[in-house]
Amino acid sequence: MAQEQPAARILAIGSHPDDIEYGCGGTLVKYASAGHGVFLYVATAGSFGGDPELRRREMEASAEIMGAEKVFWGDYTDTQIPESQQLVGEIEAVIAEVRPLFIFTHWRDDTHQDHRNLTACTLSATRYIPNFLFYEGPTSQNFSPNVYVDISAQLDAKMALLEAHASQMTKTHIEETSILDMARSAATYRGIQARVRFAEGFVSQRLLIDV
Amino acid sequence: MAQEQPAARILAIGSHPDDIEYGCGGTLVKYASAGHGVFLYVATAGSFGGDPELRRREMEASAEIMGAEKVFWGDYTDTQIPESQQLVGEIEAVIAEVRPLFIFTHWRDDTHQDHRNLTACTLSATRYIPNFLFYEGPTSQNFSPNVYVDISAQLDAKMALLEAHASQMTKTHIEETSILDMARSAATYRGIQARVRFAEGFVSQRLLIDV
Amino acid sequence: MAQEQPAARILAIGSHPDDIEYGCGGTLVKYASAGHGVFLYVATAGSFGGDPELRRREMEASAEIMGAEKVFWGDYTDTQIPESQQLVGEIEAVIAEVRPLFIFTHWRDDTHQDHRNLTACTLSATRYIPNFLFYEGPTSQNFSPNVYVDISAQLDAKMALLEAHASQMTKTHIEETSILDMARSAATYRGIQARVRFAEGFVSQRLLIDV
Amino acid sequence: MAQEQPAARILAIGSHPDDIEYGCGGTLVKYASAGHGVFLYVATAGSFGGDPELRRREMEASAEIMGAEKVFWGDYTDTQIPESQQLVGEIEAVIAEVRPLFIFTHWRDDTHQDHRNLTACTLSATRYIPNFLFYEGPTSQNFSPNVYVDISAQLDAKMALLEAHASQMTKTHIEETSILDMARSAATYRGIQARVRFAEGFVSQRLLIDV
Amino acid sequence: MAQEQPAARILAIGSHPDDIEYGCGGTLVKYASAGHGVFLYVATAGSFGGDPELRRREMEASAEIMGAEKVFWGDYTDTQIPESQQLVGEIEAVIAEVRPLFIFTHWRDDTHQDHRNLTACTLSATRYIPNFLFYEGPTSQNFSPNVYVDISAQLDAKMALLEAHASQMTKTHIEETSILDMARSAATYRGIQARVRFAEGFVSQRLLIDV
Amino acid sequence: MAQEQPAARILAIGSHPDDIEYGCGGTLVKYASAGHGVFLYVATAGSFGGDPELRRREMEASAEIMGAEKVFWGDYTDTQIPESQQLVGEIEAVIAEVRPLFIFTHWRDDTHQDHRNLTACTLSATRYIPNFLFYEGPTSQNFSPNVYVDISAQLDAKMALLEAHASQMTKTHIEETSILDMARSAATYRGIQARVRFAEGFVSQRLLIDV
Q1: What is the rounded average pLDDT of the residues F35-64?
Q2: Which of D151, D66, D68, D6 minimizes the C-alpha distance to C3?
Q3: Strand order across the C131-135 sheet
Q4: CB–CB of B1 and A7 under 8 A?
């Protein structure tokens, strides 16, 4: 059947440059290339992991590869994202501009305080957006996905996004394991669960589906 | 964007006539009318709740209103659906014929043994089907949905499906509450969670989404 | 058996005018009319949802209909309730005055930051109160009740409480659904689970029962 | 307030002699002595743990101490209780005779197959009984109670019930720990959570409360 | 510190040849080579996945590579493992012979009925064994590990175990993904969570640790 | 087998003097006496529960009995421990000095705000420590352990640790129940689950085991 399906607007939210790419970069590439509008909010320039100017440039380069329409930058300091009404308000302002149909953000149980706090604020700010999905990252805990996106055709592109963050490649706290190794194994692992070659996994808080 | 989207084949599985309608009737009406193929497997004729011949006829009438392509009937006795390899095999045979992309069945925590056993067998038989959603019913326990279908435009049709099961209208074990009252309040309640007028709620075990 | 049962003192805690009524208004009407002492703590005047003076008056009117003995008002700003030791102390002071046997408050998983923060402080302040129940609201997430109160005889009174908050009637973020529609469908939905006509559902954290 | 409160009828269900006593013996003593009607269903004579004739006599003696009105005996073999429609039917027959308001049974996650199977059947058979509580035992897993009964005044009586099962006193699989030691420590441990001297803890599946 | 640590006896339980290897093969290699006694119980010869004689030989070859002391074979038919008292008894007999300190078996939530049923029986039969760990497999659901074993030095050996099951190499239901690809990605993915190069992840039901 | 097993370094974290002892004192005595290095971080002097100078002295005495190498003192005020980046940094500094292999801290669901906040900060600060276990206390909620330490030989020593906090002996909010009664019943109760005489129970977030 041919259906007239309008382009959706998607807002992905992350604490540091490369968080979004690790969690849902393949999904965003897929949707941007299908004509949907992809927008990113990044709360900090990630100064804890490297020179913030460099990291901003890496992020902008990654967003361009992804086909994202715009990166919204928060002005928070790495490791110090607060759970505050001010941050809720900032995300609400982004939402007022983007009017997204989908929100992607960090899974709520995470050992990184920035991730926890940003997600708490995001839950508040996006209260009336119909589709809300949590993505996973290396510091997620107790994450058990119930929704998947097949990224078999986007895995290389996802790797390219992560390679754009060249300064972060080996900051994994595990010897001989690069961020690319981690992302590839996660994509294979989630693919097994979704019965496809490569996938990204999500926990759905709420999702209005159409077959 | 105009997308060529192929018709999906959907298999809904229930223990007794009207279980499927209560849990996901609105969703099935929506998808059938959108051109997707809707198939039903009903394990028993529901003799515990009324004359089995009558109940079969009610079910067939409901399936016709729904636009379902076929009702597969199991030959089990109401209240005695087993958790058995034979039942797994029967569902596998239906799947081999229908080749569905989506499975809908009872939520796994339920006070009715038929629902629990049928769902256990369905989990086994549908192991490699990519989309698997649990629907709710009056005997579900601890059900907290994470996926919704907007049935605002299908609520009347859902009521019509349930009315086709005229023999069951007041068998709710609650005074002054008909099955229609129950279904309508559930649709409103799940709509609140999905931020739409009326919805059906599902727990996703796995779901491959495309925006 | 005739038993001499002393009147219990109940403290219900909510962030904004009408939160308590939506979550457990029928229960409070039932207990107030049975001679128990009902006390309310409302942390903000709800200025985000309307004129705070008006909303205070609506709340006081509702409390009078309910038969509550007193409304304690917090002095917090709507959307800015903190998780703070000061708020814990304020609730402790109310508890010292009321000496309640029962606490009712927002469910802890909620998209509204005020609800989350108030509940966190309430958990601390009420540590030694034997009965602690969470109520639900439209912004609750993952709420699955295990305790119910039959409000079949109090549904109309519950509607009257909500009507006292006339300024909030249509602020539901869902078209054609008023707060009364929402409350009525929730009461029916929870009634189905409790096998009664209308109910309010609660999650018990701890509850000392006597048959 | 003086309230006319009718006597409730309570049905406690257990697999073997002394299971009920361990899980909720104090509660049953409390309610029987308050004038409520206490009924017991015991599915096996516990031949795996001793002479079945002796164990039946111990059970009958315990029931008499408890003040129970009647012990219904199932005819199942210890370790072989099935999850079957026949057992569902037997429990339904007991319910038809007792018409209980409250059901107490084993917690559903348990390493003993008899406990799991009996509880599955009980969930089905008691579908329309308004109050359903799970009790704990030494083989329960992942049990985290949300409802408590204060048995400070019944602890000695609970010990007497367990002592009536003299043949089981040291069958605990832990050196130097008798069943009395176990029950006493559980009562203290649950009392800590309930903020009373001694308590029994329960998981409520559904419970209609009145303050 | 030098400690005299006695060899532990470990019993790993699986439904089909290669289930144990996929779930905990690296762990078993590690412990066997450290001098502990490794024993295997395999309930079926896996006739659904190939010639049963061939599969038995593959299993015996794998056990030899692993350094296991003995494979106990159940006589069940693939896809038809029952949840029965007889199977509980058989596992109890193996336990009486092996006297293990550790049990490893399938995670309890699984789409394969054989895995679910074997695990239910194992939970019963091993009730008094102090250490009980669930391993994962491709058909596990909702598995979120809390215990890990570092198999960085055993990954190659684990691959060798799986290669011994040559007949199963490509039976993954996912194109272009072999069982080796799956196991390698799982080891990397669980390694990320454990902060080591490669790991196997487990859910602990109970585990008596010593630092 | 004789194995050369290096001494492990353990860091236990608690909000107030005696929290660590109640939760894992027996475990720490066991490991200190086995030659491992035990270090303690106590965030406040517990002025809410008594004279802070006295409580510090009690804590130091207890640490000496325990065989701990050092107590690190935080400078926070009792009841006012924040969830802050500063506290994360302080714990990171302790970790840099101690280089622990194991972290023990409060269970994350607790009615005491100090416990919740300290644990949230600890989760962040210890992100790359391989072994992370939550201990329980009287204000824990929904705690269901999956790891145990046998403290049958250390129960008396654990009692001695708690007796060193003489000022806290009866501050239990439960009549006739001292902190020693509580700890003893918990040790018995957890012992039942671990199939030993006395145990401490833990929830493992991640744990790298070796048999």
Answers
A1: 97
A2: D6
A3: C70-76, C37-44, C9-14, C102-106, C131-135, C199-206, C147-150
A4: yes
What is the reported pLDDT for D2? 39
pLDDT at D211: 64
Q: Is C80 touching A (CB cutoff 8 A)? A: yes
How far apart are the C-alpha atoms of C111 and A128, rounded to whole Å?
10
Q: Hey, are the CB atoms on A192 and E176 less than 8 Å from each other?
A: no
> Which residues in chain D land under pLDDT 50?
1-4
At E165-175, the pLDDT tens digits run 999 988 888 87
Count of C-beta atoms within a 10 Å radius of residue E166: 11
Distance from CA of C120 to the nearest CA of A (A): 14
Per-residue pLDDT at E5: 58
B113 and D127: CB-CB below 8 Å? no
| Tens-place pLDDT, residues A93-148 | 999 999 999 999 999 999 999 999 999 999 999 999 999 999 999 999 999 999 99
* E35 phi-psi bin (left φ>0, alpha ψ -120 to 50, beta other): left
User: Average pLDDT of chain F?
Assistant: 94
Per-residue DSSP letter, B146: S
Helix (H, G, I), strand (E, B) or coil at C162: helix
ipTM reported for the complex surpasses 0.90: yes
> What are F111-145's pLDDT values in tens digits?
999 999 999 999 999 999 999 999 999 999 999 99
* Coil/strand/helix, residue E124: helix
Facing B144 at nearest CB: one of C144, C177, C181: C144
Q: How many CA atoms lie within 13 A of A159 on its CB side?
A: 12
Nearest chain D Cα distance for residue E156, angstroms: 36
Which residues share a beta bridge with F72? F41
Residue F73 CB contacts under 8 Å (≥ 6 apart), including other chains: F42, F45, F56
| Region of B18 on the Ramachandran plot (φ > 0 left; ψ -120 to 50 alpha; else beta) | left
What's the CA angle centered on D132, arms D127 and D137, to 5 degrees?
A: 125
Looking at the complex, does the CB of residue B82 fall below 8 Å from at least one CB of chain E?
A: no
Residue E24 parent element (H or E): helix E19-33
Read off the tokens for B170.
């007041």
Query: Apex CA A177: angle with CA A175 and CA A179, to 5°?
Result: 130
The answer to whether B182 contacts chain E (CB < 8 Å) is no
Would you give the DSSP letter of residue D51? -
Distance of alpha carbon A136 from alpha carbon C194, whole angstroms = 37
Residue environment code for B76-92, b if the CB has 16+ CB neighbours within 10 A, otherwise e:
bbbbebbbbbebbebbe
Residue F30 and residue F149 in contact, taking contact as beta carbons nearer than 8 Å: yes
Nearest CA in chain F to D196: F174
The whole-angstrom distance between residue E113's C-alpha and the CA centroid of its chain comes to 17
Q: Tell whether F152 is within 8 A of chain E (Cβ).
A: no
The set of chains that have 3 or more CB pairs under 8 A with C is A, B, D, F
Q: Chains with 3 or more CB pairs closer than 8 angstroms to E?
A: A, B, D, F
Which positions in chain C touch A128 (Cβ < 8 Å)?
Answer: 173
B118, B15 in Cβ contact below 8 A? yes
Tens of pLDDT, residue by residue over C117-150, are: 999 999 999 999 999 999 999 999 999 999 999 9
**Chains A+B touching (3+ CB pairs under 8 Å):** yes
Contacts of D193 in chain C (CB under 8 A): 206
Quick check: E209 and F209 CB within 8 A? yes
What is the mean pLDDT of the segment spanning C154-160?
98
Report helix, strand or coil for E206. Answer: strand
- The burial class, CB within 10 Å (0-12 / 13-18 / 19+), for F52 is middle
How far, in Å, CA of B176 to CA of D192, rounded?
A: 43
